[in-house]
Write a structure and sequence with these properties.
The protein is α/β, with parallel strands linked by helices. Helix content is 37%, strand content 26%. A 6-stranded mixed sheet has the order 3-2-1-4-6-5, sandwiched between helices. It is globular and about 55 Å long. 28% of the residues are buried. The mean pLDDT is 92.
Length: 174
């Protein structure tokens, strides 16, 4: 299969058939999955709940062209990569940046007093919203372009080093 669509409903990944792409996805995200055995469009119509988002899994060489075509054909939707082989599709304007703003409003925190860290395109709005936007060393290039700071990689304790440097006032190498 060139493209493998999946939908998120009730924190479960729903796919028509389980394959290597789905296996890698559920392993990375540590989430459950359900094989529908019927077309996802039919499954969603029968479901009690609507999907939170749709993801399409594919060979990474197709992701950019897929996203560009999706943006052209469906301007009310947002298409972004969240991994080398994953394109997320959701309603435009619903993103992690809005989540940061919502949390700040709820707890009376100024967004300038926040730090957001990320590595994928679905983190860009969050990184732009925070007072300090941090891209991990292993982040996608578009994420690094918008970040205020590039941290060490996830695999090399980058998050802990950012907390040490910017929150605890120490040297990130401690």
């Amino acid at each position: 299969d060139e493209y493998v669509p999946i939908v998120y409903i009730d924190d479960i990944c729903h796919c028509r058939e389980f394959n290597d792409y789905v296996k890698e996805f559920v392993t990375i995200c540590n989430i459950g999955y359900k094989e529908t055995k019927i077309p996802l469009s039919q499954y969603v119509k029968q479901s009690e709940h609507l999907p939170v988002k749709v993801l399409v899994l594919m060979d990474s060489k197709y992701c950019d062209a897929f996203s560009e075509e999706g943006i052209r054909r469906f301007p009310d939707l947002a298409f972004m990569r969240s991994h080398s082989f994953i394109v997320e599709i959701m309603t435009k304007g619903i993103d992690k940046g809005l989540a940061v703003k919502w949390l700040c409003d709820k707890y009376g925190i100024n967004t300038e007093d926040t730090i957001s860290l990320g590595d994928s395109e679905n983190d860009i709005a969050m990184i732009k919203t925070a007072g300090l936007g941090v891209a991990m060393a292993n982040a996608m290039p578009k994420v690094k372009e918008v970040a205020d700071y590039i941290a060490d990689s996830n695999d090399n304790d980058g998050v802990a080093k950012v907390i040490q440097k910017f929150c605890l006032g120490g040297n990130e190498n401690e």
